[in-house]
Amino acid sequence: DSSNEENLSMLREHEEDSDVLIECRDVYKSFGEKHILRGVNFKIRHGEAVGIIGPSGTGKSTILKIIAGLLAPDKGEVYIRGRLRNGLISDEEISGLRIGLVFQSAALFDSLTVRENVGFLLYEKSSMPEDQIAELVTETLAAVGLKGVEDRLPSELSGGMKKRVALARSIIFDTTYDAIEPESQKYAGLDPIASTVVEDLIRSVHFNGEDAVGKPGKIASYVVVTHQHSTIRRAVDRLLFLYEGKVVWHGMTHEFTSSTNPIVQQFASGSLDGPIKY
Description:
Layout: H1 2-17, E1 20-31, E2 34-45, E3 49-53, H2 60-68, E4 75-80, E5 83-84, E6 99-102, H3 114-118, H4 120-125, H5 130-143, H6 159-170, E7 179-182, H7 192-205, E8 222-225, H8 229-235, E9 238-243, E10 246-252, H9 262-269
Parallel strand pairs: 3-8, 3-9, 6-7
Antiparallel strand pairs: 1-2, 1-4, 4-5, 9-10
Helix pairs in contact: 5-6, 6-7, 7-8
């Protein structure tokens, strides 16, 4: 009867949503008179590698900062593992969850060594002995392909090495990360080969892959904000296309270049002709 059908429908919906890590519902954000997000809706599930793409200034980094709790939406709701994020709550309030954010600039402390940068939160907030932290730092650096750099300062590292150190810092905890979010233009200043190395590195630390020393990755899911087509091809499985503050297209990576959406077509081809104007 109709009640049984309704119950089955609700059960299927619950099962489909049981693996949702992050959900944005009608999220809006403005800075003064500038409207950045205008009703963003999407879900990211456990195990996914997702890319958020779109023209500059469409709110890609803003939505990551809202998810990470660095910004609060003006309107709308963000759910982390089904729990409403009210303002700037701490990840520790959601049992078993950790969200790491790798900033565009790497955001390393210039006066601290690589060891001190990677282990910063553990040194500051954990009761772990310093020698144990140092050992964990060395293991984590090895996982991102860096060895013997623990005593160097950031000024002694190349741009690509700084990115790796920042990634190591975001995965230093021994628990599996539910999500890691490399921020916009992560590859700025890297040559194509270095970009490929970082793209492969992100894949390797995903729990479906193996890190640089052959161990399973620590990251359950990750979200990448990027403009680069190589990243789209190599580092993510599903795409969300953000334009004028809304998700105007979503699909699997292999569907990107064959999309009939004129906005996506123009972005994919780099054409000056189309709805996207600069």
